[in-house]
Amino acid sequence: MVVCLFIFFQTFQTSNAEAQNVETLRVAFWNFENFFDPFVDSTRTYNDFTEDGAQRWSKSRFYKKRNNMFKCLLSLSGNEPLAVLGIAEVENYYVLNALFNQTPLKNHNYRIVHYEGDDRRGIDVAMIYCIDKLQLIYSEPVKIRNPDDKKFKSRDILYAVFSDRRGDTLHVFVNHWPSRYGGERETVNLRALAARTLRHKIDSLCWTHPTMPKIVAMGDFNDTPDDPSIREVLNAKPLEDADTDCALVNLFADGRELGFEGTLKHQYNWQIFDQIMVSKSLMDKESTLHYKSKSSTIFHADFLFEPDESFGGVKLFRTYVGPKYFGGFSDHLPVYIDLETTLSSN
Q1: For residues 206 and 213, is the Cβ–Cβ distance under 8 A?
Q2: What is the enclosing helix (H) or strand (E) of 86?
Q3: What does the pLDDT look like over 291-309, one tens digit per residue?
Q4: Distance (Å, rounded) from C-alpha 207 to C-alpha 197?
Q5: What is residue 183's predicted lDDT score, i.e. its pLDDT?
Q6: In the chain, what percentage of residues exceed pLDDT 70?
Q7: CA 105, CA 87: separation in Å to the nearest integer?
Q8: 284: number of CA atoms within 13 Å, CB side?
Q9: Are 128 and 111 in contact (CB under 8 A)?
């Protein structure tokens, strides 16, 4: 009996030590929906989100939205630092600083990656990372250019390279592809253009690295996992269909395994526009840095919803619907995955 207890204790100690050597890196994305500061930007023609603008965007409304966002992010992360957060629809560094350095989020040692883009309304993508988990090696904005329309402007694709605490390299892309405003069919070519831009960048990484790079691509793609821009142009598919080493594995392709039916709602229907994809190299569980199985999640806390009196069920609790102010969160739900990194071997 004593021998059995000793063996059990030794096994437990070993297992517990091994568990302590695995660090979880939560990677998330959220479209903040019109997170503007309340000030007039003299360099922009679009200033609806100002005190005298069409949306009557006051300082008090700005701070209420900021506080909503940080409370949601703390809930999503379990009050632990996220490794990386990709963000869409932020106006500038000011709003990012107000959120991540002037709220309880400042305790998580986040740093900001942001470049001013060319979007007509002045909304950009951004990236936040925790310096206790990752080191930034490089970053750049990737422009989306339309050879048939020199005046075309869109949000950049934000690219950053990180090193984890073990020394593994992680390539991260944050996307906010052209919207369906004006019609889905009328704008499909613009999203295909964004998909080709991202695909070219990923192909370049695959061709120039001696081993397959570890890649995360996330964002609001304004298309579903089954749309041609995602499946065909970007070549992002479920794991069983990802037929080449450089294909992306779309972890949000199967809505039945995400905890909720969609990331945004149009009338009666929920759709998955917000997605996270990874390179096949991150699906290798034997690798020191890899995707944690079944961790892909649409975050859907109750406070993000309100009753949908028009179409039934619930709808997202938004800041505005048209010109009417509601004081909520966003018209998109956040999404996340977990990566695991082995800090040391026994």
Answers
A1: yes
A2: strand 84-90
A3: 999 999 999 999 999 999 9
A4: 16
A5: 85
A6: 94
A7: 15
A8: 12
A9: yes
| pLDDT for 277 beyond 70 | yes
199, amino acid identity: R
Secondary structure class of 298 (helix, strand, coil) = strand
Contact at 8 Å (CB) between 100 and 143?
no
Token pair belonging to 91: 């106006």
pLDDT digits (tens, 9 = 90+) for 162-216: 999 999 999 999 999 999 988 888 899 999 999 999 999 999 999 998 889 999 9
Angle ∠(73,251,82) on CA atoms, nearest 5: 25
3-state SS, residue 340 = strand
Q: What is the DSSP letter of 108?
A: G
The separation between the first and the last C-alpha atoms of the chain, rounded to the nearest angstrom, is 28
pLDDT of 113 strictly over 70:
yes
For 243-296, the DSSP string reads: -STT-EEETTS-GGGSSSS-SEEETTEEE--EEEEEEGGGG-TTSSEEEPTT--
Q: What SS3 class is residue 140? A: strand
CA distance 172 to 86: 9
The answer, yes or no, to whether residue 87 has pLDDT greater than 50, is: yes
CB-CB neighbours of 107 under 10 Å = 10
CB-neighbour burial class of residue 330 (10 A; exposed 0-12, middle 13-18, buried 19+): buried
The C-alpha atoms of residue 231 and residue 223 are separated, in whole angstroms, by: 10
* Strand spans (E) along the chain: 22-35, 84-90, 110-114, 124-130, 134-142, 157-164, 169-176, 215-220, 236-237, 248-250, 264-266, 269-271, 274-279, 289-291, 297-298, 305-307, 314-316, 320-321, 324-325, 335-342
Tokens at residue 37, please?
Answer: 């500061």
Helix axes 93-100, 59-76, angle to 10 degrees: 60
Instruction: Give me the residue label for tokens 């309100």.
Output: 306
The 3-state DSSP class for residue 65 equals helix
pTM of this structure:
0.93
The three-state secondary structure class of 315 is strand
The arithmetic mean of pLDDT across residues 69-84, rounded, is: 97
Which DSSP state fits 116? -
Asked if residues 199 and 233 have their Cβ atoms less than 8 Å apart, the reply is yes
Among 197, 153, 147, residue whose Cα is nearest residue 175? 197
